[in-house]
Amino acid sequence: MLNKGMSIQGHIVEQERKHPNASGSLTGLLMDLTYAAKVISREVNKAGLVDVLGMTGDKNVHGEEVKKLDEYANDKIFNAMDHGGHLCIMASEEMEEAVPIPDYYPKGKYVLLFDPLDGSSNIDANVSIGTIFSIHRKISDGNDGKLEDCLQKGSIQVAAGYLIYGSSTMLVYTTGQGVNGFTLDPSVGEFLLSHQDIRIPERGRIYSANEGNAKFWDAGSKRYVEYLKEKDAETGRPYSLRYIGSLVADFHRNLLYGGIFLYPADLKDPSKPKGKLRLLYEASPLAFIVEQAGGLATTGDEDILDIQPEELHQKVPLIIGSKTDVLEYKSFYSENKG
Length: 338
Ligand code: P6P
Fold this sequence. Notes:
This protein is an alpha+beta fold and about 350 residues long. It folds into two domains: about 10-195, Fructose-1,6-Bisphosphatase, subunit A, domain 1 (Fructose-1,6-Bisphosphatase, Chain A, domain 1, 2-Layer Sandwich), CATH 3.30.540.10; about 205-335, D-Maltodextrin-Binding Protein, domain 2. The protein has eight helices and 15 strands. The chain has helices at about 10-15, 25-45, 70-80, 145-150, 220-230, 245-255, 280-290, 325-335, and strands at about 85-90, 100, 110-120, 130-135, 160-165, 170-175, 180-185, 190-195, 205-210, 240, 260-265, 275-280, 295-300, 315, 320. The protein has an eight-stranded mixed sheet with strand order 2-1-3-4-5-6-7-8, with helices on both faces. A hairpin with a 4-residue loop joins strand 7 (about 180-185) and strand 8 (about 190-195). Helix 1 (about 10-15) packs antiparallel against helix 2 (about 25-45), helix 2 runs antiparallel to helix 3 (about 70-80) and helix 5 (about 220-230) packs across helix 8 (about 325-335). The chain is globular and about 60 Å long. The model is unreliable at about 50-55 (pLDDT under 50). The chain binds 6-O-phosphono-alpha-D-fructofuranose. 6-O-phosphono-alpha-D-fructofuranose (P6P) binds near residues 119, 245, 246 and 250.
C-alpha cells in the first residue's frame, strides 16, 4: 500500500515484494543510485555559490580538484555503483566506452546506462537539469559485462528514471508497475513519495521544440508544428510553446501537465543526422517512463522502445509526450514522408 510521504526505500521494497523470486539486487542497485543522487543534488544546488564560496581555478576551498559538474556527477554515480555487486557493466554519456565491473569487485546481473547530468550547460543560468538512468538485465554469457548487454531494446528495460535538480530535487522512476515521483526532503535526506501513480494527460496544450532548427526539419514535423499554432477550440489549439532547452525539465513539465516534446532529425547538419538526443540513456528511459504513464515516444518512423541499438552513443529523433499529441504527430510525419 503506497501512501504520501512514504520513503523511496519503502517504495522500492514494496515493488520488490511484487516479484516473489526477487533477489533484492535491484532494490540494492536503486538504493545505491539514490545515494549518488543525494550527493549530486547537494553539489548542483550549491554550484550557483561556486564564485561566492571562492572556489576559483582548479582547486576548491578544501584543496580538492573542482571538476565540471557533469564529470563530477559521472564520478559520483560510477563510484557509488561499481562495488555493490549488482552490476556487470556501466555506460555513461561521459565515457566513450562501456566499463565492465573490475574483477576485484563482485559482479551482478544488471546493466546501468546513464546520462549523469543532462543539460549541464544550463547550470550557470540556474535552469533545472537532470540525471537520466536505464537499467537492463545482463544477457551475455559468463560473469563479465559486455557491450551487447548495453545494446538492448528499450522495451525490455527492467527500470528507468530521472532526477530533476530544480526548485526541489525529485526522483521519478518506474520498474514497469507505473510511475511514481519522490521529492527530496533535505532536512532528513530522504526522497519521500510526492507524486503517486503519475499519468500523463491524453492530450496537452504545450509543445516543446527548438524552432530555430525548424527549417532543417522534415516536412511532416514542420507542418505539425504549424498545425499546433492554428486556432481550434475542440483540440485546444493554438498550443503554448514551452522550451527550456533542458531535456529532463521539459520532459518533466510535459509529463505532469501534458504536452509534446519534439527533437526531430536535423536534415542539414551532418553532426545531427538522426537528431541530437541519445537513445540508450536519454530517449529509451524517458520512453519507458512516458509509456508507463500512458503516453508515447517515437522517432516518427518507429516507437523508441522498439529500436534495436547498434552503438552506445547512438542518436535518434525524439517525439515524446501525450498519447493523442504523439499520434497526431505520427500522422503528419507519415503523410508528408518523401
Ligand atoms: P538545443 C542539453 O544540451 C540537451 O542535451 C538536452 O537537455 C536538451 O533537450 C537539448 O540538448 C537542447 O538542444 O539544440 O535545443 O540547444
